[in-house]
């Protein structure tokens, strides 16, 4: 199915890409209209940044020279000719491979020597791939923060388009929340992840030229060996409104279930659109359930937000939707506070959503309480509720390709 892209980007986009879980660099899913419709202190390792404009009118400007430029042969050697055993993910953008390069010179090295990197290779037939590739290069060459994934370099060699990132050992948040056989993430770690994601978004929203991330989802949150979270995949990022403008009018793309309803309905994009998406991710952290169970015909179209909203609005019922894999090992008051914050972020009217600055402050206050009192373990289902549209099975995985 196709959807019209308004105003300056009059292009038709195909909806709903399927992808298998991407371990280290997530790719993009597109969708169209669906049924559900103060400057902060910089935590950056570099001086305050200003984002390069990447709108439709100047997306083809020269690429930044702040990154390592790799040849295609370099990356072939680093991945052993993109050997299948080094494939770690696949998505709408292309394939992601593990590779090895020298820590100082970035020259390709033998497996097991130098440093490990994640190399994302654009499919030649990828839909709108070059625009996303270029946007990611332009943003991540200038934006440096502990909660944004580090882009090491790129390859633009003939028809080949590749990106080289730091390797995130634990893969995506999506894999740890939803894949069977994976050890459940403890409560305190989930709050730490939420804080890290909020810090990344707050950094973007408080730049001189604010940046709207536009594609926050569990698969785009990557985790290092200590479960420190970083935002990845900036192919859909956009500069935010400036001056007297209240919004940016743009094509409606992103991932079904995560996007703010007003953006889906109108194409009007604001930083509060990211706040809504953050509320969805926070809800996934609380419940351990996917944003949509399955998009195949015959499955319910009810989203996680639709299902959970009645429980979020009643603090006495919050425990009924908490992830049963936590085994009751979480703070009751903390869960209620996090659920109340999620509900604010998910307000259907963007005017009543908090800013990411305020969201971060609330989460840091919750995290710094340190006590994290635990509710006693009880029977598996004493504080849980089953729902036909949101079982814990990983039902949204696409068929392996």
Give an overview of the whole structure.
The protein is of the alpha+beta class and 401 residues long. The protein folds into 2 domains: 122 residues, Phosphorylase Kinase, domain 1 (2-Layer Sandwich); 198 residues, Transferase(Phosphotransferase) domain 1 (Transferase(Phosphotransferase), domain 1, Orthogonal Bundle). 26% of the residues lie in helices and 14% in strands. It contains 9 helices and 15 strands. The strands form 5 sheets. A 6-stranded mixed beta sheet has the order 3-7-8-6-5-4, sandwiched between helices. It has a 3-stranded antiparallel beta sheet with strand order 9-11-12. Strand 7 and strand 8 form a beta hairpin. Helix 4 packs antiparallel against helix 9, helix 6 packs antiparallel against helix 8 and helix 8 packs antiparallel against helix 9. The longest helix has 19 residues. It starts with a strand and ends in a 33-residue tail after the last helix. The N terminus and C terminus are likely disordered.
Order of adjacent strands in the largest pleated sheet = 3-7-8-6-5-4
Proportion of residues in helical segments: 25-40%
Which CATH first-tier class of the largest domain would you pick? Answer: Mainly Alpha
What proportion of the residues form beta strands (DSSP E)?
Answer: 5-15%
Please report the distance between the alpha carbons of the first and last residues: 21 Å
- CATH topology name of the largest domain, in short, is Transferase(Phosphotransferase), domain 1
CATH architecture of the largest domain: Orthogonal Bundle
For the largest beta-sheet, the strand count, sense and barrel status come to: 6 strands, mixed
Elements, N to C (H/E): EEEHEEEHEEEHHEEEEEHEHHHH
Give the overall silhouette.
globular
Low-confidence stretches: 1-62, 375-389, 391-401
Task: Compute the CA-based radius of gyration.
Answer: 20 Å
Number of helices: 9
Average per-residue pLDDT, rounded, comes to: 79
Name the CATH homologous superfamily of the largest domain.
Transferase(Phosphotransferase) domain 1
Number of domains: 2
Helix- and strand-based class? alpha+beta
Number of strands: 15
EC number: 2.7.11.1
Protein name: non-specific serine/threonine protein kinase
Biased composition (Polar residues): 42-57, 370-381
Binding site for ATP: 121
């Amino acid at each position: 199915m196709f959807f019209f892209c308004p105003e300056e980007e009059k292009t038709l986009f195909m909806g709903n890409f399927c992808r298998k879980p991407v371990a280290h660099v997530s790719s993009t899913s597109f969708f169209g209209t669906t049924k559900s419709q103060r400057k902060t202190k910089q935590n950056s390792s570099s001086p305050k940044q200003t984002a390069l404009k990447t709108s439709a009118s100047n997306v083809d400007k020269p690429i930044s020279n702040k990154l390592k430029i790799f040849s295609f042969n370099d990356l072939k050697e680093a991945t052993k000719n993109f050997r299948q055993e080094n494939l770690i993910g696949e998505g709408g953008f292309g394939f992601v491979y593990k590779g090895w390069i020298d820590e100082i010179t970035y020259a390709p090295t033998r497996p097991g020597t130098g440093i490990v990197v994640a190399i994302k290779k654009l499919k030649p037939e990828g839909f709108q791939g070059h625009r996303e590739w270029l946007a990611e290069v332009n943003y991540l060459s200038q934006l440096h923060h502990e909660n944004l994934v580090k882009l090491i370099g790129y390859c633009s060699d003939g028809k080949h388009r590749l990106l080289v990132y730091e390797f995130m050992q634990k893969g995506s948040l999506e894999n740890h929340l939803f894949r069977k056989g994976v050890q459940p993430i403890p409560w305190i770690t989930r709050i730490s992840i939420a804080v890290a994601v909020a810090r990344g978004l707050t950094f973007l929203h408080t730049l001189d030229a604010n940046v709207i991330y536009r594609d926050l989802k569990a698969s785009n949150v990557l985790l290092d060996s200590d479960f420190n979270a970083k935002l990845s995949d900036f192919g859909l990022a956009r500069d935010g409104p400036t001056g007297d403008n209240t919004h940016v009018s743009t094509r409606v793309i992103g991932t079904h279930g995560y996007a703010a309803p007003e953006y889906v309905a109108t194409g009007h994009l604001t930083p509060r659109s990211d706040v809504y998406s953050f509320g969805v991710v926070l809800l996934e952290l609380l419940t351990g359930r996917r944003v949509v169970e399955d998009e195949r015909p015959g499955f319910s179209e009810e989203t996680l937000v639709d299902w959970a909203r009645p429980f979020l609005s009643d603090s006495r019922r919050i425990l009924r939707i908490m992830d049963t894999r936590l085994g009751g090992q979480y703070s009751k008051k903390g869960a209620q506070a996090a659920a109340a914050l999620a509900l604010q972020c998910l307000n259907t009217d963007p005017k009543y959503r908090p800013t990411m600055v305020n969201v971060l402050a609330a989460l840091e206050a919750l995290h710094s309480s340190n006590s994290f009192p635990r509710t006693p373990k009880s029977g598996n289902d004493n504080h849980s509720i089953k729902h036909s549209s949101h079982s814990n099975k990983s039902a949204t995985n696409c068929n392996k390709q």
